[in-house]
């Protein structure tokens, strides 16, 4: 029995490739594909695919058993079983509330499953280490960096609640040993995640997939759901909010494969995640997205279609498209080899556009060039190395030295040559040639222009001065000895966030600015602290990352619901 991958559902988390015992799963174009000649039909890939993207045509799909319309009663209905939804549900259940969670996918976790670290400002561990309480200064700096555009009370509430959320997670999920303190560039101490008590996952990419903090948190929260007897109804899609005669939200209509389900609840929390797979909403949040000639790669789970926004808008919620966050990131070698991703974001690389020309100083090309690449033909780039420079950069990264070094990354990068040579046999990701002329042909760029550009770059390296774009001299390493490598880089969309306007306690507002009774929004489908597609996002990510907002807003909403249900 051979398996196949629905490529439109694949986010390239690499999990299937890691597990395949026959190396039958490889890239074809920009998504994973199962070689039918190698597949032995073991089903490990399908069993472990978070996106439910893998199937066998030989298997008959399960037949849904029709049921009469069901009516369920509870205190709180939570729409979405990602990090924010599960955090809210568990806390409310601990406080004696009857909670029902509705999850559209067959798997829980949503985008949180792929998330990395959150920020806990002044947690108990930081207090015990003697770290001063800097939350007020952090709040003031955040407001300054974002030109005071954030709701000040919501921003302050969130900064302070990050500590309470972290302490709650450590206490109630028995994971204190999974967090350590590490220094920041400013000399302060920050929480760092290390997986000691959670499930271990083999990883070939530290930027996505299970094995990071996101999957760890989901597993811990689901453990609490089981302990509390908290029902999480998977493959059950929330479809419509129920509104009473007084305008208050009093429940939600949902559907599973068998029929309709009505959940009556005086409080409904929308935690349905992002809208990365809703083209209409993406275009509203960032009009540049439809203009990308090279297809963007989307890392979000395919169920992120903006359902919460759609439902809330129908009952009069105010949707904040002006400050929605649907960033285009890159250029990067995603979704291919993570070793190559790490190598090509180092400053020694040379970036070449489709015209065969160098187009920017390569310093800080991890995120800093995402606006400038929009001006390049095709909105893509090639990252150039010769063997010697690439080996030197790889040696630095695997030795633990340098600004981007990381122990987990170092282990993955140590296999860089094997990964890159394998990609060089494929159609897109890496081109390898003995001469610059041959490389240009493989890249599809003008040969004379590219060779002239690289020769000029090498001359500047020998002179120790970049007269084109001002790259600092310490990063100017000539590339004069083959083999040469060109790494394909394009733009990607990691997550889209923003949506319903909320008050400082996460209650949803209507178009008149008034709170809609009984309706709350947390995580990616709330306006919250997610501000715009420009440079503000960088300040926010360093202080209240999207993962931090998801977890902290899920923590905060519990207090608002408990207050309103008194």
Point out poorly predicted stretches. none
Helix content: 25-40%
Q: How is the biggest beta sheet arranged? A: 6 strands, mixed
Q: How would you write the strand order of the largest sheet?
A: 10-7-6-14-24-23
What structural class should be given to the helix and strand makeup?
alpha/beta
What is the number of E strands? 24
Q: Please compute the radius of gyration using only Cα atoms.
A: 25 Å
Mean pLDDT: 93
Shape: globular
Query: What's the tally of helices?
Result: 17
End-to-end C-alpha gap: 56 Å
Strand content: 15-25%
Oligomer: single chain
Task: Describe the 3D structure.
By secondary structure, the chain is an alpha/beta fold. 31% of the residues lie in helices and 18% in strands. Strands 10-7-6-14-24-23 form a six-stranded mixed β-sheet. Strands 15, 17, 18, 19, 20 and 21 form a six-stranded mixed β-sheet that branches. A four-stranded mixed β-sheet has the order 5-13-12-11. A hairpin with a 5-residue loop joins strand 8 (179-183) and strand 9. The longest helix is centred in the N-terminal third of the chain and has 21 residues, at 152-172. The protein is globular, with a radius of gyration of 25 Å. The termini are far apart. The relative contact order is 0.15. The mean pLDDT is 93.
In brief:
This protein has 566 residues and is of the alpha/beta class. It is built from 17 helices and 24 strands.
List the helices and strands and how they pair.
Elements: E1 4-5, H1 15-19, E2 25-28, E3 31-34, H2 44-48, E4 54-55, E5 70-73, E6 76-79, H3 83-94, E7 99-102, H4 124-128, H5 135-145, H6 152-172, E8 179-183, E9 189-193, H7 213-228, E10 232-233, E11 237-243, E12 249-256, E13 259-264, E14 267-270, H8 279-285, E15 297-298, H9 307-314, E16 325-326, E17 329-332, H10 338-344, E18 350-352, E19 381-386, H11 387-398, H12 407-413, H13 416-423, E20 430-433, H14 436-443, H15 447-463, E21 484-493, E22 496-497, E23 507-509, E24 515-521, H16 536-543, H17 546-564
Parallel strand pairs: 5-13, 6-7, 6-14, 7-10, 14-24, 15-21
Antiparallel strand pairs: 1-4, 2-3, 8-9, 11-12, 12-13, 16-22, 17-21, 18-19, 19-21, 20-21, 23-24
């Amino acid at each position: 029995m051979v398996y196949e991958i629905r490529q439109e559902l694949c986010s390239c988390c690499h999990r299937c490739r890691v597990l395949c015992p026959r190396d039958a799963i490889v890239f074809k174009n920009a998504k994973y594909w199962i070689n039918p000649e190698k597949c032995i039909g073991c089903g490990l890939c399908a069993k472990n695919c978070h996106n439910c993207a893998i199937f066998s045509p030989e298997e008959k799909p399960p037949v849904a058993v029709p049921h009469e319309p069901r009516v369920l009663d509870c205190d709180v209905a939570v729409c979405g079983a990602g990090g924010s939804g599960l955090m809210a549900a568990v806390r409310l259940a601990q406080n004696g509330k009857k909670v029902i969670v509705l999850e559209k996918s067959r798997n829980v976790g949503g985008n949180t499953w792929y998330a990395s670290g959150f920020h806990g400002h002044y947690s108990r561990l930081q207090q015990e280490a003697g770290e001063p309480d800097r939350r007020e200064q952090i709040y003031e700096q955040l407001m300054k960096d974002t030109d005071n555009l954030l709701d000040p009370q919501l921003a302050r509430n969130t900064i302070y609640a990050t500590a309470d959320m972290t302490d709650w997670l450590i206490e109630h999920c028995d994971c204190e040993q999974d967090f350590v303190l590490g220094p920041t560039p400013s000399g302060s101490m920050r929480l760092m995640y290390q997986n000691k008590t959670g499930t271990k996952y083999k990883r070939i990419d530290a930027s996505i997939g299970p094995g990071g903090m996101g999957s760890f948190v989901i597993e811990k929260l689901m453990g609490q759901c089981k302990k509390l007897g908290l029902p999480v109804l998977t493959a059950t899609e929330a479809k419509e909010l129920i509104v009473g005669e007084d305008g208050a939200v009093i429940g939600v209509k949902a559907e599973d494969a068998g029929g309709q389900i009505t959940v009556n609840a005086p409080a409904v929390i929308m935690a349905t995640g992002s809208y990365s797979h809703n083209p209409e909403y993406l275009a509203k949040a960032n009009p540049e997205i439809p203009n990308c000639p090279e297809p963007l790669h989307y890392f979000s789970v395919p169920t992120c279609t903006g359902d919460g926004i759609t439902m809330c808008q129908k009952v009069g919620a105010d949707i904040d498209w002006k400050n929605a966050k649907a960033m285009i990131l890159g250029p990067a070698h995603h979704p291919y080899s993570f070793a190559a991703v790490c190598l090509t974001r180092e400053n020694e690389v040379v970036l070449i556009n489709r015209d065969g020309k160098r187009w920017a100083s390569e310093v800080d090309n991890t995120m800093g060039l995402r606006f400038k690449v929009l001006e390049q033909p095709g909105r893509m780039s090639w990252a150039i190395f010769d063997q010697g420079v690439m080996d030197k950069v790889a040696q630095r990264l695997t030795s633990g030295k340098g600004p981007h070094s990381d122990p987990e990354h170092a282990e993955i990068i140590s296999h860089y040559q094997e990964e890159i040579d394998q990609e060089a046999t494929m159609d897109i990701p890496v081109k390898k040639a003995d001469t610059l002329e041959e490389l240009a042909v493989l890249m599809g760029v003008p040969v004379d222009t590219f060779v002239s550009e690289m020769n000029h770059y090498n001359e500047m390296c020998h002179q120790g001065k970049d007269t084109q774009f001002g790259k600092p001299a310490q990063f100017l390493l000539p590339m004069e000895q083959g083999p040469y490598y060109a790494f394909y880089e394009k733009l990607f969309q990691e997550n889209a966030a923003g949506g319903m306007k909320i008050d400082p306690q996460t209650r949803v507002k209507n178009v008149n600015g008034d709170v809609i009774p009984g309706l709350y929004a947390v995580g990616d489908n709330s306006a919250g602290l997610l501000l715009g597609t420009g440079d503000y996002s960088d300040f926010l990510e360093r202080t209240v990352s999207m993962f931090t907002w998801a977890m902290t807003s899920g923590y905060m909403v519990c207090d608002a619901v408990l207050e309103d249900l008194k």
